[in-house]
Amino acid sequence: MSIQYRAIITHQQDDRFFVQFPAMNEAFTEGETLSEALLNAQEVLNLSLDGRLEDGLEIPPPDMEKLGEPEYLITPDASIQSALLIHFYRGNQSLTELAAVLGIPAQDIENPKNNITIFGLEQIARAMGKHLVIDFA
Q1: Ramachandran angles phi, psi of 135, nearest 5°
Q2: What backbone torsions phi and psi does residue 28 show, to the nearest 5 degrees?
């Protein structure tokens, strides 16, 4: 599963670029250039997803379709991606059940600040009946 979210970037009259994420009303930013707007978009996406995970709020599913301007697919940091993969794939298995199998605290499983190792991700994937695939995009 690829973890990317659709951002709409519009060039404003003041020559700045405004970014908004339709799936997350709280996630918006801007930049003086398109490059800066894209960089800021990733930062605000990370903050929004991290906050939603921390607060137990709904996480919208990632966007899978290819887009063209003014829509872009923005990828969150790897630590956010790993937390979201666990969140989406664990299904009906509770964090408490998964933590008991792994022998780690439940709050550590979907917390992107914990920097889960590759070994830890492999263990989590196995406990969910999955296997870990790593890819560069």
Answers
A1: -145, 150
A2: -150, 155
C-alpha 76/C-alpha 44 separation (Å) is: 9
C-alpha neighbours within 13 Å on the C-beta side of residue 67: 15
For residue 70, whether the previous peptide bond is cis, meaning omega lies within 30 degrees of 0, is yes
Token look-up 């996406």 returns 45
pTM over 0.90: no
Q: Where are the domains of the chain?
A: 5-74, 78-127
- What does each C-alpha distance from 93 to 19, 74, 96 come to in angstroms? 35, 28, 8
Domain formed by 5-74, architecture? 2-Layer Sandwich (3.30)
**Tens digits of per-residue pLDDT, 34-87?**
999 999 999 999 999 999 999 989 999 998 776 777 899 999 999 999 999 988
Terminal C-alpha separation, the chain: 12
Q: Is 123 helix (H, G, I), strand (E, B) or coil?
A: helix
